[in-house]
Structure formats: structure tokens, C-alpha cells
Amino acid sequence: MSLNLHWQKSSFSGGGGAEDCLEIAAGPTTLHLRESDHPTTILTPTPTALHALIRRIAQEL
Predict the structure, then answer these.
(1) Beta 8-9 vs 22-26: how paired, if at all?
(2) Which pLDDT score is estimated for 1?
(3) Quick one: which of 13, 56, 57, 61 has its CA closest to 37?
(4) How many angstroms separate the Cα of 54 from the Cα of each of 1, 41, 58, 61?
(5) What is the DSSP string of 1-61?
């Protein structure tokens, strides 16, 4: 990916040196997701798919 993305960890991620964190970055027109322990695998969901993912996660909490 040629974009210079600024990755941010989820506030729900474990603190300290935990490596299993969800990270998100905003591109010019899309959001990108990755797991910090697999940083080269980047997901770029559509807004509909991201909305469905967030709803499903919220149901599990």
C-alpha cells in the first residue's frame, strides 16, 4: 500500500506491550483495519461492511 497511514490502536485494546490490538487508519476516502500482530494484512471494508462489523461486535459486548 503506497499510502502513508497513521495507525491508531483501539481504546479497548490491552494496555502496555500487548501485541493483539485492532488498529485503524483513515485514508483520503476509506478506513483501513489491521491487527497489530499481522501489520501487513490490511482490510479496507466498504462502509456497509464496516457498519455490519461494528454492530456485530457491539452485540457481543
Answers:
(1) antiparallel
(2) 47
(3) 13
(4) 24, 19, 6, 11
(5) --S----EE-TTS-STT----EEEEE-SS-EEEEETTEEEEEE---HHHHHHHHHHHHHH-
The gap from C-alpha 47 to its chain's centroid, in whole angstroms, comes to 13
- Model confidence pLDDT, tens digit, residues 2-60: 568 999 987 766 666 656 788 999 988 899 999 888 889 999 999 899 899 889 989 98
36: cell is 497489530
35, three cell numbers: 491487527
Which CA distances in Å does 12 have to 4, 36, 46, 58?
Answer: 24, 13, 23, 12
43-54 pLDDT, tens digit each: 999 989 989 988
